[in-house]
Design a protein that fits this description.
The structure holds two protein chains of two kinds. Chain A has ten helices and 20 strands. Chain A has helices at 12-23, 58-68, 79-92, 148-157, 179-186, 189-199, 220-231, 245-260, 388-391, 394-413, and strands spanning 5-8, 28-32, 50-51, 53-54, 99-100, 106-109, 115-118, 120-121, 135-140, 161-166, 207-212, 235-238, 264-267, 271-277, 280-287, 292-296, 299-302, 312-314, 320-322, 376-378. Chain A has a five-stranded parallel β-sheet, covered by helices on one side. Chain A has a four-stranded parallel β-sheet with strand order 10-9-11-12. Chain A is globular and about 70 Å long. Chain B is an alpha/beta fold. Chain B is built from 22 helices and eight strands. The longest helix of chain B is centred in the middle third of the chain and has 20 residues, at 212-231. Chain B is globular, with a radius of gyration of 21 Å. Chain B starts with a helix and ends in an 8-residue tail after the last helix. Classes of the chains: A alpha/beta, B alpha/beta. The interface between A and B is large, with 39 and 37 residues.
Amino acid sequence: MTYDAVVIGAGLAGLTAALRLADEGRRVLVVARGVGSTHLAPATIDVLGFAGERVERPAEALPTFVDSHPGHPYARLSVEHFAAGIEWFKARLPGLGYRGGLEENVLLPTAVGVAKPSAVVPETMAAGDLRAGGRFVFVGLGLKDFYPAYLADNLGQAGASARAIELTPPRGAQTDVSSVGFARRFEQPAFRDAVVRELAGHTEPDERIGFPAVLGLERVGEVWRELEARLERQVFEVPTLPPSVSGIRLFEAMTAALRRAGGRILLGQSVVGAETGNGRIEGVVAQAAARPTTYRAPSFVLATGGLAAGGIHVDSYGKIRETVFDLALAGLPGANGRPPFLPTYFVEQPLDRLGVPVDDQLRPTDIDGRPLFENLHAAGATLAGAVPWREASGNGLSLATGYAAAGAILENMS
Amino acid sequence: VTELVRDSLDHCVKCTICETFCPFSQVTPLFPGPKYVGPQAERYRQAGVSPDASVDYCSGCGICTQVCPHDVKIAEINAQARAQLWEDRGIPLRNQLIARPSVLGRLGTPVAPLANWALREPLARALAQRLIGIHHEAPMPLFAGRTFQRWARKHRSPTTDRSVVYFHACGTNYYEPGVGEMVVAVLEHNGYHVVVPPQDCCGLPLQSNGNFDAARKYNRRLVANLAPHARDGLPIVSNSTSCSLMLKREAREILGVEDDELKAVSEATYDLCEFLLLLHERGELKTDFRPLPLTVPYHAPCQQQGHGIGKPALDLLALIPDLRVIELDVDCCGIAGTYGLKKEKYGISMAVGERLFRDVRASGANLAACDSETCRWQISHGTGIGAVHPVELLYRAYGLDRAPA
């Protein structure tokens, strides 16, 4: 089959690149082994939360950060890239009501009561901004892995005013106590009635009410607005442990938009090889039922993720490879005798910056910086040089590089 | 292969993505979800210890396997555990009966008027529910009263320089022979000589009802009939997506059949829309389509998605002028072959289908398209709207319905 562009990977980076290309009238195929990180991570767009210190204004911090981290993927992008990507994202997914930008980070509580900086957040999370101070009350629902007392206690130790309320709304016939199970319940009026009834009279007018991020799936905006109106308080969502309902909403919104724009999505398909020639990728080969299938296109985007998602694989002998094209990798440990892992968990690990090095068009390069294939671009966690979990830069990296990879392809095509 | 399937559970990191997608655990607490019943429970299963009964509430739609980012064969693990369950418990008469469509077809076809009367007669259906446990409202198809095989034996397919083998499967043979005739007409219109070998059930319904031994026997027989053609280099096409998936993948991955004969047939087998789109890619598909001023919502069945070929019907139907196709974004219609026929599962099946029914109704169309026969029957049952295989739209757009016989 032949397309205008084939994107490998269905996480935020891949879907961003695909949607932008489809919006420009390109016939796009997304092929992925399965569903990506969207279902695991909160749907906030964290561009740069920590650069040594906590970052308050990403737009101001980025130039300095890039100067001191020349190997970081952000060094391949201009600040305009970030700004344009964010504006596009906010405008393209109006149903999720994303707010914010590069000017300043908000500070949202995590499920364990830690303040996390984010640049762009869904409207349903915005009122959780801890910077403004004030009083917070966190609501438990019997959702597993969400303990509001623990959350409130940890925030309290950091100086916030926070307390917890446990509710026991009727769960109905369904025994599912996962986040998605509760999200489906919140789409039922009777469940919302029960929650509102149980909370009534137990909060103060100046308190903001934090729910786990399970306030519905398709109808989250509606549910959230209804709760604010009926409770007469500001209401916000706190991201949960996986599965991440806010990420599921993002995946659903992006894949629906992509389908409407004429894009094709093929899940459950590992890309197992490539056809190359004249310094170009001619096609990628996926293992369909019974026979391999080749998907050809003038442009390709690699967005298969890093070590955690399987885009980069370390085998039991410590041999490391990029799994689709066997691309050159940067940040390999062991070259100078360094061990691949350090015994302390919360330090930067030697493997952390491992990934695919790219040029300014986000094309994977050899170790000397020369592009390996003229028409292959990479985006997201596959890229070398970032440590998203320490920088609080995960979705920001995916959005900015996915957007920029599509931009590079559009520029080459025109 | 069976070991490969079982070993794949070690790749499960319990991310729970499959649980968030499962259409069945969403609507019934009787199925706790693919991860819990699959990779998680499988670790505790051993020879002589029967898996818990909840695995029987897995429909086998396979969406869990499709979305898993770690290649865990979740649905396949569940299918094998279900077979173990029924091997230990003994397969009930109903599940033996509804899993043999060709036996039912041979019995029902000669007495079609009587059989169809009984299928539509509430009293008879109430009795069938009581006696054998087929839900009285379940969408049971009506017998055509003739078989496609009989038509095909009389039909003279024009001799051309290229041939294709048509695997029509049981639904076409006993219930929708007209669809088979359209498949043949569309293939012939595109310059193919169509070979219709004698054929029986692929074994899929027996497999999904846990009767692996009988499923393998049917499958062996079918594969033996098709293999000579595959070895001659002929492509085998089918409009029945679930049955062709059985040939392509499930006989090997679930039933554990592994030999050269099956391999040859697997590699030669194509879903009809997949085949026609490949023709189009090569510039060999006729595109002399007349305008078809219709709006048609299209549902890609879960089993069709298991082919890993995307939704070729969308690209094919896009070639027809004035035809507006709405891609429905719902994973499963709920019927899952014989699942939704069972009295204890009919309600679950309809609850799963509700989202799809809602979207079909919301489209405002009075015709839907879907590749799989049981899904079409379910869609029509749930919405009151007719549902056709995409080939019927191609057939009409080619003007073959008006061609002289």
